[in-house]
Amino acid sequence: MNPPDISQSEWSVMEALWERSPQTASETTKSLRQTMGWAENTVRTLLTRLVEKGAIITAENASGTRTFSPAVKREDCVLAEGQSFMQRIFRGAAKPLLVHFASNVKLTPDEVRELKKLLDQNTCK
Amino acid sequence: MNPPDISQSEWSVMEALWERSPQTASETTKSLRQTMGWAENTVRTLLTRLVEKGAIITAENASGTRTFSPAVKREDCVLAEGQSFMQRIFRGAAKPLLVHFASNVKLTPDEVRELKKLLDQNTCK
DNA sequence: AACTTTTCACTACAGATGTAGTGAAATTAC
DNA sequence: GTAATTTCACTACATCTGTAGTGAAAAGTT
């Protein structure tokens, strides 16, 4: 099963859960209220929608409160988002995408070294 | 002025106009009806919305029919989309993004060579 | 048990998006 | 100049998103 579409706001919730799970709604709320400035119910709505989408699953903790955990792996979602982005903006072509980012972002020499090594491995695969 | 938000469907229209402009609505329609399977009015609606957003501007051709042309450069829009994507999925960090794509796409040895050269230039900048 | 706080199911509501349809006005073709 | 075709302004309408509010039920507190 492919990861479902996850909207921008929903993505923030997923990040919170990928970082630590399971979490109760109030726990998730607590961290996101800070970073996002969201009301309690906003987070709850997003959690509900993510459950509907099948992106997270619920369980109960010892005290009987519902908890939430990711049902999809971050890596899979990143892959899906990346592919959709590449499709939309670069018509699915990998090279222009990499050219774009390689020319438009700042990297340290170390990062450059590491990326070049990765590219070499890509060739071999 | 920054490029406005351009939705996925709208992006297809922009691509048509970036490729050739000015175009009348029916010209744009003709090409997109093929590739996208859209009804005439769908394209017209998207054109209207893009005008409202300031992404394209109108003029008239010799026969008095309205024509459409991009008001924003493709490169600028790609930059904006790229940054928004990087922000959303990689919290704005360039390296993880490049690592992700470098490890998850297929490249020819030639492309790898070219990208490595680009990376070197990045360092120097 | 009564009060307080939490949890949660429902509801709300505006703006964006995808995807057209209607019907009048303008142009083109005879 | 009448018919056919094109253009275009409006309207439509379901879904998704962002961002909550209400109010009842459950749980915790004293």
Explain what you see:
2 copies of one chain form a homodimer. Chain A is mostly helical. Chain A has 2 domains: 1-92, Orthogonal Bundle (Arc Repressor Mutant, subunit A); 94-125, no CATH class. Chain A has helices at 8-19, 25-36, 40-53, 74-90, 94-104, 109-124, and strands spanning 23-24, 56-60, 66-70. Chain A has a 3-stranded antiparallel sheet. In chain A, helix 2 (25-36) crosses helix 3 (40-53). At the A-B interface, helix 4, helix 5 and helix 6 of A face helix 4, helix 5 and helix 6 of B. Chain A binds a DNA duplex (30 and 30 nucleotides) through residues 5, 7-10, 24-26, 38-42, 44-46, 48-49, 63-66.
Short description:
Chain A contains 6 helices and 3 strands.
Would you identify the CATH architecture of the largest domain in chain A?
Orthogonal Bundle
| Domain count of chain A | 2
Shape of chain A: elongated
State the major sheet of chain A. Answer: 3 strands, antiparallel
Q: What structural category arises from helix and sheet content of chain A?
A: mainly alpha
> What portion of the residues of chain A fall into strands of 2 or more residues?
5-15%
Oligomeric description of these chains: homodimer
